[in-house]
Amino acid sequence: MNKELEHRFVTELENNQNIVHKVCSLYTNDRDSHKDLFQEITIQLWKAYPKFRGDAKFSTWMYRVALNTAITLYRKSKKRVQTQDYDSVIFRIKADEYDDTQEKQLKLMYNAIKQLGDIDKALVFLYLEDKDYSEISETLGITEVNARVKMNRVKNKLRTILNP
Amino acid sequence: MDELELLKKDWQNKEVNLPKLSYDDIYKMIWKKSSSMVKWIFYISIIEFVFWAALNIISSDPQYMQNLKAMHIYNVMMVLNFINYGIILYFIFKFYMNYRKISVTDSSRNLMKAILKVKRTVTQYVWFNLIIFATSIIISLYGVLIYSDEGKEIVEVAIQQGNEMTFWFLIIALSLLFTGVLLVVIWLFYKVLYGILLKRLKENYTELRKLEV
Predict the structure, then answer these.
(1) What is the pLDDT of residues B110-151, one digit of tens each?
(2) Do A53 and A10 lie in a common domain?
(3) Contact B107/A155, CB-based, under 8 Å?
(4) Residue B65: inside a domain
(5) Domain total for chain A?
(6) Among A51, A128, A155, beta carbon nearest to B1
(7) Distance CA A82, CA A20 (A)
(8) Mutate to test the interface with B, among A11, A64, A72 (most CBs of B within 10 A)
(9) Dihedral of CA A54/B11/B18/A20: which sign?
(10) Which range marks the domain in which residue B98 is found?
(11) Interface of B with A in 32-61 (CB under 8 A)
């Protein structure tokens, strides 16, 4: 691995690190796991980087590797509890922030998403990132029609979690 | 769903709250070791392979070879060994190919397919080992009873006492039971080992497969 490649990779990742942080915040519940997953994704990205030919955008490619790592490669720690952890890195609501209805509703939504399965989470994540169905289907390796059908099911699932 | 649209906006605004790593932080990270599941599955299968191969080599000392010759099963066992090593070489090749195929840039579905293929190869490998193991036990038992001095003696005593049929029936039943128990133990061990690693993955895979129907 030459120095130039290293430098290019680290710079690109530094500029696009938000994508990885967002994936981590959806798939982990505490700071340590967040760090672990971030590291694992970084390693996988670096391993795959020589094969990245630039025919896709760096960020698009990152979405794919980051999600694949979260869904398939990452070994989640056994201590992981399914309950909601309000200390999670990005969903933490500051104490001085006043808790109006909308804020409360958002909090409930985030908690509902946390309860979804790995694949459903990936769908919601790409949806929140404003990706179109062709990109969603390509990332997960399913057809566009299926991505739409699945997304509708996920919405229904969320509705059931929110209004039991 | 209006809430989701609302969430989308909120999600995009939250970027300011995200942690920020420096160039150096990230630079250090790329030299850390991966702890990915696939790597562990690959390592365990290699360890397993070494274990079986070592068992075979340890048990093949000259004394053992002499015994085999005396029991007239040397040729059969050698042929079995020959087949064994041939197939093991084939498996090494397959393990290697599977590992190379696991590329992180594939789609989630393809990646999981590749991982499950690794698992399938390992399963085939273990079954192959179990069969070779069982065959060797049965051939050895046959050799011991028919050709070794102790075996001959035991058989003669049994015949003199007039219950030859019962004797053979017992021998066959006992050896089958013995082999069966051993196979079950090995199978269970294997099930636990890979079962833990692959449980979550299998759930995800079935979910992805359901999407295709």
Answers:
(1) 877 887 787 788 778 878 877 887 888 788 777 877 777 777
(2) yes
(3) no
(4) yes
(5) 2
(6) A155
(7) 22
(8) A72
(9) negative
(10) 42-212
(11) 32-38, 40
